[in-house]
Structure formats: C-alpha cells, structure tokens
Amino acid sequence: MLPFAAIFVLALFHLLPVQGAAQRPGVRVPTGLLLPSNLGRFHLRAPVDRTAPLSYLRPVAKLDIITLPERKLRLPSDPVERIDDDLRRFMDDMLETMYAAPGIGLAAVQVGVPRRLIVLDVAKREDEEAEPEPMFLVNPEILTSADDRALHEEGCLSIPEYYAEVERPASVRVRYLDRHGKKQEIDADGILAVCLQHEIDHLDGRLFIDYLSKLKRDMVIKRFSKQARLSPKVPVL
Taking the complete model, does pTM exceed 0.85, yes or no? Predict the structure, then answer.
C-alpha cells in the first residue's frame, strides 16, 4: 500500500493542467480547479493583439454554423456596442467552432448572431508548423484597398465543399477594436487580406459567390436549396 504522502502527490498531479495543452485549440484541461493566478489564463501569439487570452479552464461551446440558403446570411450586421466578458467568451466559442470546422475565418452572423465581429487565424494556412495566431476583430472596417488585384480560390464554412476563384484587392488596411476594446489597424496582403475581406463581406450580407457570374451563383444557390429540402436539419438532443 502506498503511503499517504505518495497518494496525495499522485492526486495533486492528476489535478494540475498539462502545460501546453491549453495552447492547442480543441484540447481541454480540467475545469473547476483553484489555480495560481499565473496559471489561470493562457496566451496565444497573435499578429496584432498579442495579449489575446484563450481560457480552456471552462467548457467551450461549439456553435452551429448556418449554411446556404439560410436567409440570416444576407442580414447586415449591427455594430457591437460593448466589449465585456460575455462577448469575449462568445469570441472564444467562435474561435473554437472555427478551428473545429475546420476553417481560417468566421463571422458572428455565420453562427446566427448579426453583430460586426469576426475571428480568424491564417497561420497554419501559410505554415503548417506555425503556432496558432488567433485574431479577434470587433467592428472591423476597410480603410483603404490596393488598386492591384489578386485572384485566390475561396471557400466558406457557410457554403461547404464549394470553392471558386475570386478576384479582390491585393492588400487592405483594416481598422478594428481588439478583444480589450483597444483601437487597432493592420495592413494585410496575401491570404490574410483575402480572409479579412471575405469575413467583412459577411458582416454586410455578402457571400463570395456574389463575385461569380450570375449563372454560377444561381447554380450554387439552386444546389444548396435542393440539399436543404432533401436533408432538413434535425435538432440534436
């Protein structure tokens, strides 16, 4: 039989969160623990907001992503008026949902909440070995767009398994509020510029298929409308 001291040490070991586990989206650590203040919050590297915390000490909700032909996708989103802990928790839920999909960007309206809020992370799209670099953008707006154009293949979590080439400005400057309510600006090109423009379009009720010819767009809408009729969603109990 193990002495009492050894049993106590083993029990304590099982209660402590694994270092690094909370840095990997989708990995949970035990909930309801009393931890020192320096263990109670974790930070992931982000391009602009380097203090963006992702707490995995609480259950993170995976949200339902709405898909075409859901009419909510065409709703213009309202500005966010207040950034508080509830909104930050919602941001974390959005990010977890995006990672699980998997995707590199998600707008609040895509989970049925028409507010001007997006989350994104393009790090692994550019480098598979890269650490996560989540960005949280509240009330984002494009200040300037380059005259140069670039063609990229795009997809969308709300239009699953459909991809098409879309031409957009090659670079943009975007102003937004970070998850702490601080004003930020970012100059973006490449895939980050594409993702920013794609997600901000969602906030205005636009989809990437709107940049296609009317014939292609109508074919996509018809296809997804037919799928919705044949396979109505059944609520998960």
Answer: no
Number of continuous H segments (helices) and E segments (strands) in the chain = 5, 7
Residue 233, Cβ neighbours under 10 Å: how many? Answer: 10
pLDDT at 125: 79
Our CA angle for 111, 90, 48, nearest 5°, is 105
Pick the CATH number of 19-230 from 3.90.45.10, 3.40.190.10, 3.40.50.280, 3.40.50.150: 3.90.45.10
Contact 236, 229 (CB under 8 A): no
Q: Is the pLDDT of residue 234 over 80?
A: no
96 is catalytic: no
Give the model's confidence band at 27: pLDDT under 50 very low, under 70 low, under 90 confident, else very high. Answer: very low
Strand partners, 21: none
Could you report the per-residue pLDDT of 158-169, keeping only the tens digit for each?
Answer: 999 999 999 999
**Per-residue buried b or exposed e for 83-100, using 16+ beta carbons within 10 Å of the residue's own CB:** beeebbebbbbbbbbbbe
Among candidate residues 227, 164, 147, the one with its CA nearest the CA of residue 198:
164
Per-domain residue ranges of the chain: 19-230
Report d(CA 206, CA 139) in Å as an integer.
Answer: 16
Q: What ranges make up the beta strands (E) of the chain?
A: 105-107, 117-120, 135-145, 149-156, 159-169, 171-177, 183-189
| Tokens 């005259």 -> residue | 147
pLDDT in tens, 43-68: 333 344 444 444 433 455 689 999 99
